[in-house]
């Protein structure tokens, strides 16, 4: 009997996956984040731009590389979760 195929969806969005990678692997390039998440580098760039515009991530240039600092006190965006912070989400997903 063949193993069941995985569901075509996940509980977390790609935005959350990228945020987790930036937290767990701060030295990764966006290409490495894309490989970890399983999306294109261009998609990661758009997500990081979204997160920057929302005040969740700040970009700092260090030499030829960018580093990303997470604003853990930023509120989650959906009204159902707005009373929680990015840091609480990251801690929960540990």
Automatic annotation (TrEMBL):
Name of the protein in question: Helix-turn-helix transcriptional regulator
Organism: Deinococcus navajonensis
Gene3D superfamilies, per database record: Winged helix-like DNA-binding domain superfamily/Winged helix DNA-binding domain
Matching InterPro entries: ArsR-like_HTH, HTH_MarR-typ, WH-like_DNA-bd_sf, WH_DNA-bd_sf
Superkingdom in the source lineage: Bacteria
Domain HTH marR-type intervals: 14-63
UniProt cross-references to SUPFAM superfamilies, sorted A to Z: Winged helix' DNA-binding domain
Pfam families according to UniProt: MarR_2 (PF12802)
């Amino acid at each position: 009997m063949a193993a069941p195929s995985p569901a075509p969806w996940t509980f977390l969005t790609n935005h959350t996956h990228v945020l987790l990678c930036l937290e767990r692997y701060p030295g990764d390039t966006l290409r490495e984040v894309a490989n970890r998440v399983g999306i294109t580098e261009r998609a990661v760039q758009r997500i990081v731009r979204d997160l920057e515009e929302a005040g969740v991530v700040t970009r700092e240039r260090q030499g030829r590389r960018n580093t990303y600092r997470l604003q853990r006190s930023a509120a989650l965006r959906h009204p159902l979760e707005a009373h929680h912070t990015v840091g609480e989400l990251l801690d929960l997903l540990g």
